[in-house]
Amino acid sequence: MKKPILTARKAGLIACSVCHLLCPAAPREHGVRASKCPRCGATLHSRKPDSIARTWALVIAACIFYIPANVLPMTTVTSLGMVQSDTIMSGVIYFVQSGSWPIALIIFIASIFVPLLKLFILCYLLISVQRKSHFRPKDRTRLYLITEAVGRWSMLDIFVVTILVALVNLGALATIQAGPAALHFAAVVVITMIAAMSFDPRLIWDAKEKMHE
Ligand SMILES: [Zn+2]
Question: Which of 32, 37, 72, 98 sits CB 3.0–4.6 Å from 181 for a disulfide?
Fold first, then answer.
C-alpha cells in the first residue's frame, strides 16, 4: 500500500503564485474563493482559473493563424524591378537548392517544426488532463517544460526578417519587405507562448492525487 500523498490543497492551503507564500485557503463564498495573499496581495488560486478552457481557446487561435503564416508570403524581394515573394516553405526550398542546407534546416526547425510541435504537445496535454489520464505524469510534465522553454526560439524567423528589412534597402536596386505572413507568424508564436503559460501543469498530477484518496 502506498502512503497517501499530502498536497497543499488537501491540507487546506494555497501557494501564492507570485511570492510562493503558503496561505490558508479561505472558506468558499457563493462557490468562489476570493482571498488575497497576506504578504503580496495577489489573488490566490488553488489552480489557474479556467486553465483548460483558456488554453484550448488559445491553441485553436494559434492553429488558425498558423495557416496564413505558412500560405502567405513571408518576404517580398524587389531586385532590379523583379518582384519575388517567398513563403516560409519556399524559402526553405530555395536555401536547400542553393546548397545552404544548414540555414534551410534552421528555418525549417524554428518556423515550421517547433511551432507545430508545441501545438501538438499542448493538445496532447489538454486531452490527457481532460481524460484524467494516469499515463506517465512525470514525462508529461517534462513535455510541458519543453513547450515553455522553446517558446522564445520560434521568434528567430521574425528576427531574421526584421533584420533583412532594416539592412537591405538599396532603393531602386533592391529592397526586402516583410510579407503579411510575418504578422500571422508572430501571432502564432505569441499566442502559443500565452497558451503554454495559461496551462496549469498541476492538473496533470491531480488525477494521480484522486487515485490515492
Ligand atoms: Zn504572495
Answer: 72
